[in-house]
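Comment on this:
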Amino acid sequence: MSPIRVVLAEDGVLLREGLAGLLDRFGLPVVAAVGDAEALVAAVRRERPDLVVTDIRMPPGFGDEGLRAAVALRRERPGLPVVALSQYVERGYAVELIDTPGGVGYLLKDRVADVEEFVGVLRRVAAGATVVDPDVVRQLLARSPLTRLSPREREVLALIAEGSSNAAIARRLVVSDGAVVKHVGNILAKLDLPPDDDTNRRVLAVLAHLRG
């Protein structure tokens, strides 16, 4: 199996070098490690990586430059897998990033505690999966008019966004597989979204709906 070539963007030198060394050790060679959004765009165009891992707040403005660069790169190269790392939820561009084809991850830095789990997420995103931190989903939900969803349905929605299968959700919530199927159907129906067996598309559809 070919290695997953990564372009890494992080303005903190120590964290950038630490992440680069970590990914290299786990068989994800970092072909470029940069410190700002402009350099990120240039590196992706030059290296044509299999995966982009980027901080969201980067120079020069330390706003959402990294996230905006990721969105622009995915428009330029549809399907480019991107994992965004942040201490905060940036609503506008977060939804736009997720609501595009191809693997995507949105992780909060404070919740990345297990190295092997983190690397596993990167591999899943590189393979086309969508993995969104449940806290990100909760914050998006909290700002959206989704009063029709029950508390349990919100729990299920958050787990779907993590990339969990129906069976995994059932184990996590200690309910039957049939109960999860019913919850998923209710969520899609209440949001006026068509049922779909593809977890990725369900996540994208639901999060796209949150835009409004």
Summary: The chain has a mean pLDDT of 83.
